[in-house]
Amino acid sequence: MADVKTQSMTMIEAIRDALDVTMSQNSDVLVFGEDVGYFGGVFRCTAGLQEKHGLHRCFDTPISEGGIVGIAIGMAANGLRPVAEIQFADYIYPAYDQIASEAARLRYRSNGDFVAPLTIRTPVGGGIYGGQTHSQSPEALFTHIAGLKTVIPSNPYDAKGMLIEAIEDNDPVLFLEPKRLYNGPFYGDPHAPAKSWKGHPLGEVPSGHYSVPMGKARKIAEGDDVTILTYGTMVWVAEATAAQLGLSADILDLRALLPLDLDAITESVKKTGRCVVMHEATRTSGFGAELAAQVQEHCFYHLEAPIERVTGWDTPYPHAQEWAYFPGPKRVANALRKIMDAA
Amino acid sequence: MADVKTQSMTMIEAIRDALDVTMSQNSDVLVFGEDVGYFGGVFRCTAGLQEKHGLHRCFDTPISEGGIVGIAIGMAANGLRPVAEIQFADYIYPAYDQIASEAARLRYRSNGDFVAPLTIRTPVGGGIYGGQTHSQSPEALFTHIAGLKTVIPSNPYDAKGMLIEAIEDNDPVLFLEPKRLYNGPFYGDPHAPAKSWKGHPLGEVPSGHYSVPMGKARKIAEGDDVTILTYGTMVWVAEATAAQLGLSADILDLRALLPLDLDAITESVKKTGRCVVMHEATRTSGFGAELAAQVQEHCFYHLEAPIERVTGWDTPYPHAQEWAYFPGPKRVANALRKIMDAA
Amino acid sequence: MAKAPKPSSNRSRLYVPEPQFRPGDTPDYSHISVPADHTPARPDPLCDHHETAEHALKLIRVLRFNGDAVGEWDPKLSTDALLGAMNDMMMTRAMDERMFNMQRQGKMSFYMKSTGEEAVSVGHAMALKNSDMIFPTYRQQGILINRGASIKEMMCQCLSNSGDPLDGKSIPVLYSFKKHGFFSISGNLGTQLIQGVGWAMACAYKNEDGIASVFTGEGATAEGDFHYALNFASTYRAPCIINVVNNQWAISSFQGIAAGEGETFAARGSGYGLATLRVDGNDILAVYAATKWAAERARKGGGATLIEHFTYRQAGHSTSDDPSQYRPKDEAEHWPFGDPVERLKTHLIKLGVWSEEQHEELAKTCKTEIREIYKSAEAMGNLSGATHVNDYTMFEQVYEHPPEHLEAQRRMFTQELD
Amino acid sequence: MAKAPKPSSNRSRLYVPEPQFRPGDTPDYSHISVPADHTPARPDPLCDHHETAEHALKLIRVLRFNGDAVGEWDPKLSTDALLGAMNDMMMTRAMDERMFNMQRQGKMSFYMKSTGEEAVSVGHAMALKNSDMIFPTYRQQGILINRGASIKEMMCQCLSNSGDPLDGKSIPVLYSFKKHGFFSISGNLGTQLIQGVGWAMACAYKNEDGIASVFTGEGATAEGDFHYALNFASTYRAPCIINVVNNQWAISSFQGIAAGEGETFAARGSGYGLATLRVDGNDILAVYAATKWAAERARKGGGATLIEHFTYRQAGHSTSDDPSQYRPKDEAEHWPFGDPVERLKTHLIKLGVWSEEQHEELAKTCKTEIREIYKSAEAMGNLSGATHVNDYTMFEQVYEHPPEHLEAQRRMFTQELD
Ligand SMILES: Cc1ncc(C[n+]2csc(CCOP(=O)(O)OP(=O)(O)O)c2C)c(N)n1
Ligand SMILES: Cc1ncc(C[n+]2csc(CCOP(=O)(O)OP(=O)(O)O)c2C)c(N)n1
Ligand SMILES: [Mg+2]
Ligand SMILES: [Mg+2]
What we know:
The complex is a heterotetramer, with two copies of chain A and two copies of chain C.
Chain A: E1 6-8, H1 11-25, E2 29-33, H2 49-53, E3 58-60, H3 65-77, E4 81-85, H4 96-103, H5 106-109, E5 119-124, H6 140-143, E6 149-151, H7 156-168, E7 173-178, E8 204-206, E9 218-221, E10 226-230, H8 234-245, E11 249-253, E12 256-258, H9 262-272, E13 275-282, H10 287-299, E14 308-312, H11 322-325, H12 329-341
Parallel strand pairs in A: 2-3, 2-4, 4-5, 5-7, 6-7, 10-11, 10-13, 13-14
Antiparallel strand pairs in A: 1-8, 6-12, 9-11
Chain C: H1 79-104, H2 118-126, E1 133-135, H3 141-146, H4 151-159, H5 191-205, E2 212-217, H6 224-235, E3 240-246, E4 249-250, E5 253-254, H7 255-259, H8 267-270, E6 275-280, H9 284-299, E7 305-310, H10 331-334, H11 340-351, H12 356-378, H13 404-414
Parallel strand pairs in C: 1-2, 2-3, 3-7, 6-7
Antiparallel strand pairs in C: 4-5
Helix pairs in contact in C: 1-2, 1-11, 1-12, 2-9, 4-12, 5-6
The complex binds thiamine diphosphate (TPP) (2 copies) and magnesium ion (MG) (2 copies).
One magnesium ion is lined by residues 217-219, 247, 249-250, 313 of chain D.
């Protein structure tokens, strides 16, 4: 990437840039959702796109998540590449039927006669005192659905490249945006001064078109003691906490949950013999369960301790108790200590 | 239960009897759903209830799963005990928001000011050539939701007792009915002559009121070689296949997925050292993942081989290939052989 | 069957609607006044939607029972077109009949007839371009037949055999024929309505001439997707037609459960600012005329029209259903709007271009033709015997390229085949 | 802010509605003719729903701008009642003002004002029994105030402190007050509409006298739940009122996005066979009168009424919003229907029971009272300092009895507190 110009960007700007690049290159790309048009989105991810590309290419929709995904499916089947925004992942459930029964299965049901290459972007995770309805991480509800792909970036570089990849993919992709990382990395301490992406190496985003291949995890730290499998906001909490504990951890930012980079996972766990899985979502039937199941399936004879899960509690995401709910540095450290002490 | 009268019943009759008993004892119990009224339900589970209890206690609804659950929540909050039927679990997704965001969280959100003691009954599983939209087993999409309980009986005795328990529970309960077991046990061979519940010991159903406590697994076979954790239709396939292989298997019919009988599970796995988890649902992020994750968390040092999952494939449920999709005796046997050969 | 006792009446104030007639009753529709001269005027297709508000409450009819075609909605079709319509309707009916019987013999898992509703599908298709995309339910097989789809392929789909374009993936009747502008049918009711609106928005976005025509039964209008469709169609003035086929029944529940008893289905559209037409669905000329009007409106930028096709489901809901459980056995015969095939026949005879003999002859030809096609289809397999569908196809078309975990499952599956 | 350039116009046939005015424009509503004498007649509350079809398109008004109360909808409230209404509206406004400012100071995470919409909540509440269950949105705090809920408890909820009846579980404004007939507010738009219909069905089932009154903003009418509510209310003739508060805006999108530009929100109800009223939401007498009518209809078994309250959201959507980004800063002042408090004031003065001085005095009293209550509330903690909410409460009320896995998590949590 020697002579590619880069620019320092937040994740919001990187997402906007990915939309701008694909809209500029391909008139089939349309962007829509609640408040995404003139206003540019409640998180500003689509700011300026309507002005630049026209009212008919970036527009507001009624407050109807089912309708938004429904029209996206029809448009995608008719040759377009719609990118729909769901304002918060907590509001995606009215669209669940359209996603799980329709977008995910159109190709299969019609045996390839019709396809639905659409992208659904939606912010996930807590950390903004959003309470029960602005904090959820529902990824596991989508990884159970055959026909869907589910990805989640943890930094501006990946966000842009992965979003371009998602839009150009010929299958429906759910693109989850960890809202606590929109403006900077977050290491798990809400009282520490907020960090910005500006100046961060992963905030250096190449201009123009590039993509991050779907299904390849990113090794963010190389180590021998323990493998940490995680994604989204927890990537940064994991890294900071492991470093603080002085652990030599192999940390994988999974990036895609489905398709999953099983090779990278097994290679790492076979090396370290220990594995901690981390996510912000509710524990029971979270994606961590799938990761734990697969790790023990594939690395059983290399495991020296039970796989630990660090997750949100099995309660709705509370408001005042946000940081008691969030799987922060203490919960991460407890799990890492526990697994290192084991056996 | 010495002098309790029993009657030989199919699972359909047992469910109907549970509804009849609770409706007779408590005028707060209402039954409704698509075609459940005059007609008595497409699987006949509500046949005769309208005639007996009146039009206002067992009635048809518009084809609107979201609306059905929505009114159930409002009625439950207003003191009734609604029992809503969703005609097939494959059609429950339009109600997903009302279930996951509303029924499951009303108590929490209002800190106990309002509650939603409702029951949702819905048939799950394949085996009737129903294809993609009459065969699904979406339990894992509900076990991820804090505030919900999810149960699934495997025989008439349990069906009646568990349904009464569900209706009387003060939290929302999803009651999943394995449709392939409605008329008789099913051992996995679609070409074998169909068996009936009539004459089967678990088809002997006590009359009147009784309940099966929620969260207690049922040990259906006692053994030392391997633990099989399963529920619904797969209970019977597991039992028959293990017997055929001559294995000494400890088989648990979980009955409730949430709350889960972790004690029974760990006790068994610690005894056998091997564990196979079985369900009909799609593999990735299925409830088997949660079971595998918990078993390795709690029994790691007793495990002699990786936990195996026997599941449906990660595809929609196909029509003509129904029996190639279904986790039948061969898939079960392969997994059992594999785990017994391991280590 | 003996007359089922009426359920004990409401002892509470909770109102639950009931149909007029149940098994054992003698249906009496004498209170339904079949409108003869009350057909509302034909406004300009680009009129303000308020001008069609009364159309939502009345009924557009062209064919009188005596065979006359009257009024400004009369599309004045050529004799060829009328004879073509008759052929398509009778082929549809013959195919339904055959497939129903074959299902009874176990050749397929399931079938759904459209008997009594052939005018809706055939008349509608005739008034559209073949390239206009239909988002059908499972009762618009007449559209495929009108558009010249291969009946053999349709039958192979139902038989889930080696000739099935869907490789056995879907249950019978859930066709997908992109080449015939026929969207893949979903087993989930309602979902396609809003997808069709999205398709139409894409047509507009691309400055293409095409429109979408989306279908629902009256029962499924209660799904949220119906609301989404009307609402988005209104906001973005999507070039589409939204069709509610009101065949009075949704499996066992009557239309009063679906929508209450206060208003027609067409009237739903008025509140959304859409044009609304309500048409005698057993009158193929009226269906044709209403569709033509709505298609012109959509194509010229006037936005969407909601059409209620008022008809009657003569058969059971599907092969899994027994309607005599919940409605009088002979209700169809008492249905005051007659049968769509009979009504066109009367018209053609009155026009002097048709006779009872020709009609019987055509019925015979259709039956024979369908039988022959069926034979060649069944030769490719059926569900009760060998389907000849390769089981491995179940792993295909989940994604464009199968991810590794699916490949691993495919390998696992191999071990089950010994 | 400089006038934002208009987006390049559609280059395709895809139609996307736009509001008339954007930042930098000077709002001009002279084309809106505020109906003076065109208030539709007041039919009998048990009339056929068709008699209210025109009401969906017109606007019920009682208060003239000159302070007169006119027409058959005039509820002729006593002076006491009018003064009570004024008090409740001004308390609501004062509380909103204070809480907004305190949020700006970081005392709570979030707040939502109802400024400009106080007549809707207060007028509505006055016309109901306190036991009628409201299914509110986050802009009906006026109902709680009218029903005598503890303002301190409301504030403690917003502050998520030790006085919060919800133990900090919910974000500010999502109150739950069963004892005041005020259903727990969901953060998910629309969902409660159909729940309210279910509540009403339960009232009817139990032969109780109560009704439910459910609320939505105009924006959220696009959710499926709105359709479910209208549909089920129609089928089962549920004793309820369905209120659409059309405050013109849904965060940044105008009402033309929500529903298209062809029809009013009230008109939605007609197609479902419901009674429909459209009322000047800044006219508290009209709101009262319409509610009274609908409540009588519901209570007497006439079924549901859809009421559109036509009003204007004067403030931002919430403290997270800056409306000057998407609409002219002074649009509120140009709004042709005025301000609800001002309009009642003019009426009271005209009646001779009120004066500018008394009004200012009341404003001051409300402000002081609210300030005092706020102080005592904040003394129990706030989000930026110590909330004094016990973190363990987060594990409570997930279920009636915590299952073992939750107990285990609670124990795990203990290890994090050192
Ligand atoms: C979402 C959903 N809910 C329920 C069903 C089950 N179901 C299939 S057809 C049907 C009745 C549909 O009635 P209607 O819409 O009137 O269409 P018709 O069969 O009369 O043509 C029902 C309830 C389904 N397929 N999808
Ligand atoms: C299901 C859902 N989708 C989106 C949101 C985000 N959201 C909160 S309020 C709002 C606007 C609502 O507008 P309207 O219904 O007109 O009510 P108003 O705020 O004007 O009172 C949106 C989009 C939500 N809370 N729930
Ligand atoms: Mg129907
Ligand atoms: Mg609004």
